[in-house]
Amino acid sequence: MNAARAGHSASILSNGKVLVTGGNNGSGLLDTAELYDPSTGTWIMTANMSYARAGHTASILSNGKVLVTGGSGNIASLDTAELYDPSTDIWAMTTNMSYARFSHTASILSNGKVLVTGGYNGIARLDTAELYDPSTDTWTMTANMSYARQGHTASILSNGKVLVTGGHSAIASVDTAELYDPSTDIWAMTTNMSYARFSHTASILSNGKVLVTGGNNGSGPLDTAELYDPSTGTWTMTANMSYARAGHTASILSNGKVLVTGGSGNIASLDTAELYDPSTDIWAMTTNMSYARFSHTASILSNGKVLVTGGYNGIARLDTAELYDPSTDTWTMTANMSYARQGHTASILSNGKVLVTGGHSAIASVDTAELYDPSTDIWAMTTNMSYARFSHTASILSNGKVLVTGGNNGSGPLDTAELYDPSTGTWTMTANMSYARAVHSASILSNGKVLVTGGNNGSGPLDTAELY
C-alpha cells in the first residue's frame, strides 16, 4: 500500500478492485483511501474521505457505492457517514448517525437498508442500534438491544433476522447473544455462547450455521470456536484453532472452508493463517502471511483470492497488502496502500474495486479513502470523507452507495454518517445518528433499511439501536 495503516477497512468492488480506507499509521488517523488492482498488483490513491477515521465500517451498497460509517476521529468518535462512488472517485457526506461510535457493526439487510449496532463512543459502550435507508438518506432508531456491547458481531441469517454475539459490556466481556427481527423491530435473547468473547469473528456457513472463532475474554485471546444453529437456537463447540487470536479476520472461501488470518496472540501479533473445514470439523494450518497483523481487513476478490490490507503489528500501523491464493496455498505481496491504517473498513463495490475508508494511521485518525483495482493491482486515492474516523462501519446500499456511520476520530465517538457515491467519487453527509458510537455494528435489512446496534459512546457500551 502507499501508506501504513491499521484499523482500516477493505472492500471488494464490482470491478474486482479492493478499496482500502482510513485507519491509523501509528502517528495519527488517516482520511486517505487507495485502490488495489489484482490484475496488475498495484495500488493507486483515490480521493480522500471527508474525515480521518479508524475502527469504522465500510459497506458496499447495491448501487455499487461504499458506505463508510463512524469510527474514531482526530478529536472524538464520529457519527458521520460518507459515500464513495467508484465510478467518479468522489466522496459525499450522508446524514449523520444518531450516535457517534467505533468498533461497531454494519449489516446490509435484504431490503437494502444498513443496520448499525453497538460500539463505543469514547465514554461508554452502546446498546443502541439504528437503520440507514439509502433511498431517503435518513437514520432511524430501533429498539435497544438487551445488552450494551462493543467489539461484537452481527450476522444476517437466512430467515432475515440478525444475530448479535458477544462483545464487551460496561463491565466485562459477555457470552450473550440476541436476535433482531426487522419485521417487528423486536430484540429477543437466544441461548448464550459457551465462552464470553469480544474482537471475535462470526461467519455464516453454507449450511446456515454461524461459526464464531477466537476473540478475547478479558484475560487473553481464545483458541476456541463454536457453531450456532438458527433452527434450534443452540451453540455447539467445534475443534479448537491452532492459535489463540483476537482482532483477526475470517473469510469463507468458494470451497466452503473458512480462512482465518492474523490477530493478536498470547505473546505478539500473528502472521499465521489456518483453514476450517465444516465437513470434517478440522482446522489445518496454511502458509504464513508475509506480515504479522491484527485489526486488518480481508476481502474475497472475484477471482477467489483473498486480499489482506493494513492492520497493526504491535509496533506500527501497516500500509502493506498481500493476496492469498487458495488454489496454491501461497501468499503474494501486492502494491502498498497510500496510507497505513488500522480499524478501517474495506468494501467491494459493484465495479469490482475495493473502497477502503478511514482508520487510525501512524499519528491520528484519517478521513482518507482509496480504491484498489484488482485488474491492475493499483491503489488510487478518492475524495476524503467529511470526518476522520476509525472503528466505524461501512455498508453498501441497494443503490450502490456506501453508508459510513460513526466511529472514533481520536477525541471520541461520532454520531455523523456520510454516503459515498461510486459513480461520482464524492461523499455526502446524511442526517446524524441519534447516538454517537464506535465499535458498533451495521446490518442491511431486507427492506433496505440499515440497522445500527450498540457500540461505545465514550462513557461505556450502548444497548441502543437505530434504523437508517
From TrEMBL:
InterPro entries: Gal_Oxase/kelch_b-propeller, Gal_Oxidase_central_sf, Kelch-typ_b-propeller, Kelch_1. The keyword Ribonucleoprotein does not apply. Coiled coil: none annotated. Keywords: Kelch repeat. It holds the Pfam family Kelch_KLHDC2_KLHL20_DRC7. Gene3D superfamilies: Galactose oxidase/kelch, beta-propeller. Signal peptide: none annotated. The keyword Protein biosynthesis does not apply. This is Uncharacterized protein. It comes from Adineta vaga (Rotifer).
